[in-house]
Specification:
This protein has 1 helix and 10 strands, in the order βββββββββαβ. By secondary structure, the protein is mainly beta. A hairpin with a 6-residue loop joins strand 5 and strand 6. The N and C termini lie far apart (about 40 Å). It is about 5% helix and about 45% strand. It is globular, with a radius of gyration of 13 Å.
Length: about 120
Amino acid sequence: QVQLVESGGSMVQTGGSLRLSCAASGFSITTYDMSWVRQAPGKEPEWVGSINIGGRTTYYAKTMEGRITITRDDAKNTGWLQMDGLKPEDTALYYCARGGRSYFSPYDIWRDYRGQGTQVTVSS
């Protein structure tokens, strides 16, 4: 059974940092790009970034570029999203998902294999 479990979400103050984890089971992430997607209350899901197979290339949303780093450790079957300089507008439920950016757009199939999400709240 494919499972993705996010953790590490919390409430932090503006300017703070968080490191979110994504533990995969039931499959090996070795052969998949991995992505992070977030959804704020009342808003559409937003692609945050992706990391390709092998981890040599990362892609970040412009709204977060320079403030986030996505990494992976295939041996641990785990990925991470490091976020720095957090702003109140970063408040959202953060999901990790199997697949690259195209799974989000244009194919919109990222929900097929994603975790339950971890809540990030940034206070002003």
